[in-house]
């Protein structure tokens, strides 16, 4: 059989500038008297935000986003919480890149009590999440994992496209 001709694609990841002021619904740094570390309460190193655009079909973006999330989280949450966050983020980013052709925007916001990750794609329509297959295949389980491991999750229509999001409250799954 002849070899398939493929054009080499250059990654289209471009950093997105963060706004100078967070929108009203986004967390801000707590006052100094509230930021003292309590030994029984999960803490991030500091409140922070990750904002990354990933190009369509560029699966090399998945480990890069996972690494950036790991850096953002630091020692946030109970042991294992960061691993769950990385897994779920990887699943959402992979879904967006595999099932859409226009890339995605990944936003992660972490405060001491909670992490929220959103992956926005630019494909219209809200498809019903598939039921994972009964066999031992390795695909079709992304949203199932999100549903089972996240404290909350959802899908919201956003003009052109949708946002798939999850939240973790800092405890390990």
TrEMBL record:
Coiled-coil residues: none
**What are the alphabetically sorted keywords of the record?**
Kinase, Serine/threonine-protein kinase, Transferase
Does this UniProt record's set of keywords contain Transport? no
Q: Name one Pfam family in it.
A: HATPase_c_2
Question: Where does this protein have compositionally biased stretches of type Basic and acidic residues?
Answer: 23-43
Cross-referenced InterPro entries: Anti-sigma-factor_SerPK, HATPase_C_sf, HATPase_dom
Q: Where is the composition biased (Basic residues)?
A: 1-10
- Taxonomy, superkingdom: Bacteria
Q: Any idea what this protein is called?
A: Histidine kinase/HSP90-like ATPase domain-containing protein
């Amino acid at each position: 059989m002849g070899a398939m001709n493929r054009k080499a694609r250059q990654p289209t990841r471009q950093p997105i500038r963060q706004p100078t002021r967070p929108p009203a619904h986004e967390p801000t740094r707590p006052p100094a008297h509230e930021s003292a570390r309590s030994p029984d309460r999960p803490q991030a190193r500091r409140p922070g935000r990750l904002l990354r655009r990933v190009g369509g079909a560029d699966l090399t973006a998945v480990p890069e986003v996972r690494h950036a999330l790991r850096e953002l989280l630091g020692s946030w949450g109970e042991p294992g919480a960061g691993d769950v966050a990385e897994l779920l983020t990887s699943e959402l980013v992979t879904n967006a890149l595999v099932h859409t052709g226009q890339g995605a925007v990944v936003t992660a916001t972490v405060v001491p009590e909670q992490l929220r990750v959103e992956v926005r794609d630019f494909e219209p329509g809200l498809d019903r999440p598939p039921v994972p297959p009964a066999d031992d295949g390795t695909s079709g389980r992304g949203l199932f994992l999100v549903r089972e491991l996240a404290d909350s999750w959802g899908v919201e229509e956003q003009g052109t496209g949708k946002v798939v999001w999850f939240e973790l409250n800092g405890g390990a799954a």
